[in-house]
Write a structure and sequence with these properties.
With 325 residues, this protein is of the alpha+beta class. The protein contains ten helices and 14 strands. The chain is elongated and about 85 Å long. It binds biotin (BTN). The site of biotin has 22 residues, from helix 5, strand 5, strand 8 and strand 9.
Length: 325
């Protein structure tokens, strides 16, 4: 079903508003004209605007602004990421769903939802996920020891920041996983791993991007310190295109992660991060550590120099900047 639908969409797009007859589409796909008509009806039900005239055929007038797999995969330049997509109009959490299916899925499988009702942030927090955002999870099977899992958070942050930067905005990364524009958070990353003893079975890389939303759609308690791509660009972005670019960039960085010394990737991350050199306060489930952020270790831990001049590595925590330098 999916494949034929995509081929009909592609044929209509390629025709560039010149009518394509049901007969022609049927011949191309090896199906009857009645079947073509059924596919057209199902596309219309999904928001594709298709004009049909009995004499001439079908013209694609507009495509819905949704993250449909067919739209994402058309022109997607990856070899692995997004080759299989689970799409949901509404879901509790893409990370939850991805974790349920991960064991049986190929690496690179994507879960995407227009709305999340139970979106999760780091450290047990809620992640507000209204329509217009990009809420996604990618299944990874990197075959690395568990201790390196947090490196993937840095990989994802770097990829998101790179894509936004390529669009002309000065995106920066706040350790460990916030991508920010003008000091305000536009994206959060939640990396979850399933491991046995020390071997990772899979990793679910959850990425939440405040894309085409007005700030007022984010409840006030979450709004402070947040922004959206729409607010920063002053207009809606093309979410499908953005997601295609992100999947490509993620895959590139993931290949680097698997094939090159991590130090190179870390250097790029450090160049884009605005955390190093800042006075920070990091809250972990058990305590609060204050000091100056002086580096990030090969495991992705933040290195903090405290007032007594001793250094401490923090692998995970909530980081706030105490004072900007
Ligand atoms: C953070 O606290 O900064 C991390 C937020 C991660 C949100 C994303 S949205 C897609 C995926 N599904 C979830 O439930 N959470 C992540």
């Amino acid at each position: 079903m999916g494949d034929k639908r995509s081929r009909i969409i592609k044929a209509l797009k390629d025709a560039q508003k010149i009518p394509v007859s049901g007969e022609e589409l049927g011949l191309k796909l090896g199906i009857s004209r009645t079947m073509v008509w059924k596919y057209i009806k199902s596309l219309e039900a999904d928001g594709y605007e298709i004009e049909s005239s009995p004499k001439k055929g079908y013209v694609l007038k507009s495509v819905p602004q949704l993250l449909y797999p067919e739209e994402i995969q058309m022109g997607l330049k990856t070899t692995l990421f997004g080759k299989k997509i689970h799409y949901f109009e509404e879901l509790s959490s893409t990370n939850n769903f991805a974790k349920e299916i991960a064991a049986a899925e190929e690496e690179g499988t994507l879960v995407v939802a227009e709305v999340q009702k139970g979106g999760r942030g780091r450290m047990g927090r809620e992640w507000v996920s209204p329509r217009g955002g990009i809420w996604m999870s990618v299944v990874l099977k990197p075959g690395i020891p568990l201790m390196y899992a947090s490196r993937l958070t840095l990989v994802a942050g770097l990829a998101v920041a790179n894509v936004i930067r390529a669009m002309g905005l000065d995106a920066r990364i706040k350790w460990p996983n916030d991508v920010r524009i003008n000091g305000k958070k536009v994206c959060g990353i939640l990396t979850e791993a399933k491991a046995e003893v020390d071997k990772i079975e899979y990793i679910v890389l959850g990425i939440g991007i405040n894309a085409n939303m007005d700030l007022k759609e984010i409840p006030e308690s979450f709004r402070i310190g947040s922004t959206t791509l729409k607010a920063e660009f002053g207009k809606n972005i093309k979410r499908v295109q953005f997601l295609q670019k992100l999947l490509f960039e993620l895959e590139q960085q993931y290949i680097r992660f698997k094939t090159q010394p991590f130090s190179q990737l870390l250097n790029d991350w450090l160049t884009l991060s605005d955390t190093i050199g800042k006075d920070v306060k990091v809250t972990t489930p058990s305590r609060v550590i204050e000091g100056r952020a002086v580096g990030v270790t090969a495991e992705g831990a933040l290195l903090i120099k405290k007032a007594d001049d001793t250094k401490e590595e923090i692998i995970a925590g909530r980081c706030i900047y105490v004072r900007s330098n």
